[in-house]
């Protein structure tokens, strides 16, 4: 067994005595040699410990990123099987031949630059919160507003004409709307409509919140930006724009009141079928729902207890 530091410290006292009274005698030299050996043993143990700790830190730091990248790319393949041809080491190859990198290796981006030019990693980085809203989101917390346009072009159509050709009529509450048939978006909206019908039978007061529908497909950019809106792809729906506002229009001082006044059960139905709600964004859009099954699937996975 190795001596403790205490006992080795005690062992130094006789050595001091020998040195002061009789110079460096034989047993003192042995003690010195023993100390040198002990110090070198301690130094080598420290070196080994440093190497082990460094390796451990590298493994701990790199594993979550690696796991996020792999699981995010697999998630996109699972949620958009028609558009993702393969998951590659650095990103995705889409069925239209476009290759998208998971990371972009440029300098750090401002929040606005991240919205303008997100990577796949950025697109999935902000976790969409399921459930009722109870507090204001942090500034710049807009899960779902970072969209890689090239990705959604491969999913839903590359221009207005191509998207239009993919639209189909969906019966939604008491009306009919156009929605993109690709990737199950229209089917998901139809399922939302059916569940909402049932909810409205019990809560007819919610009807005025939802109707009339203010729009689905419109090939356009997000207001005051160069970014394509999800409406461009026919994969978003605005419910009654007069009853539900947008952050740029809002002149009041109680955004949380706006969020909580919207029926949480309506939001829950949309989320159940793969839609996210703009009412959960810092820059809120209370009327807006868009089909983003990857964000809902990721949120459910994060919310699930560990196996
Ligand atoms: Zn909208």
The molecules bound to the chains, other than polymers, are: zinc ion
The number of helical segments is 11
Category from helices, strands and their pairing: alpha+beta
Question: In order across it, which strands form the biggest sheet?
Answer: 6-7-9-8
How are helices and strands ordered from N to C?
Answer: HHEEEHHHHEEHHEEHHEEH
Strand percentage, roughly? 5-15%
Q: What are the segments in which pLDDT stays under 50 over at least 5 consecutive residues?
A: 1-26, 57-63
CA(first)-CA(last) distance: 42 Å
Helix content: 40-55%
The radius of gyration computed from the alpha-carbon positions, rounded to a whole number of angstroms, is 31 Å
Largest sheet: 4 strands, antiparallel
Number of strands: 9
Give a short summary of the structure.
Helix content is 48%, strand content 12%. The chain is built from eleven helices and nine strands.
Describe this structure as you would to a colleague.
With 307 residues, the chain is α+β, with helices and mostly antiparallel strands. It has one domain (65-303). The protein has 11 helices and 9 strands. The protein has helices at 5-22, 26-79, 111-116, 120-125, 149-156, 160-165, 185-202, 207-210, 255-261, 264-272, 293-303, and strands at residues 84-87, 91-94, 99-101, 167-172, 175-180, 213-215, 236-239, 275-277, 288-291. The strands form 3 sheets. The protein has a 4-stranded antiparallel β-sheet with strand order 6-7-9-8, sandwiched between helices. A 3-stranded antiparallel β-sheet has the order 1-2-3, with helices on one face. It has a two-stranded antiparallel sheet with strand order 4-5. Strand 1 (84-87) and strand 2 (91-94) form a beta hairpin. The longest helix is centred in the N-terminal third of the chain and has 54 residues, at 26-79. Bound molecules: zinc ion (ZN). Zinc ion binds at residues 231, 236, 238, 285, 288.
């Amino acid at each position: 067994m190795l001596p403790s530091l205490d006992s080795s410290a005690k062992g130094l006292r006789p050595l001091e005595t020998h040195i002061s009274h009789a110079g460096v005698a034989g047993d003192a030299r042995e003690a010195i040699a023993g100390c040198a050996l002990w110090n070198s043993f301690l130094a080598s143990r420290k070196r080994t410990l440093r190497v082990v700790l460094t390796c451990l830190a590298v493994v701990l730091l790199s594993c979550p990123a690696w796991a996020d990248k792999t699981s995010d790319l697999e998630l996109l393949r699972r949620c958009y099987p028609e558009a993702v041809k393969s998951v590659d080491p650095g990103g995705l190859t889409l069925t239209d031949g476009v290759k998208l990198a998971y990371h972009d290796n440029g300098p750090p981006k401002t929040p606005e630059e991240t919205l303008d030019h997100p990577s796949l990693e950025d697109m999935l980085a902000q976790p969409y919160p399921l459930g009722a809203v109870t507090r204001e989101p942090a500034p710049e917390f807009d899960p779902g507003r970072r969209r890689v346009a090239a990705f959604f072009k491969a999913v839903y159509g590359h221009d207005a004409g191509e998207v239009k050709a993919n639209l189909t009529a969906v019966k939604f509450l008491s009306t009919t709307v156009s929605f993109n048939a690709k990737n199950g978006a229209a089917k998901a909206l139809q399922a939302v409509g059916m569940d909402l019908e049932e909810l409205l039978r019990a809560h007819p007061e919610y009807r005025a919140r939802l109707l009339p529908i203010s729009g689905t497909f419109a090939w356009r950019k997000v207001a005051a930006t160069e970014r394509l809106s999800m409406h461009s792809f026919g994969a978003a729906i605005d419910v009654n724009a007069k009853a539900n506002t947008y952050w740029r229009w809002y002149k009041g001082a109680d955004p949380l009141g706006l969020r909580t006044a919207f029926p949480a059960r309506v939001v829950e139905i949309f989320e159940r079928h793969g839609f996210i709600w703009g009412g959960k964004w810092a820059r809120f859009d209370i009327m807006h729902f868009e089909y983003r099954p990857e964000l809902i699937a990721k949120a459910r996975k994060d919310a699930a207890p560990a196996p």
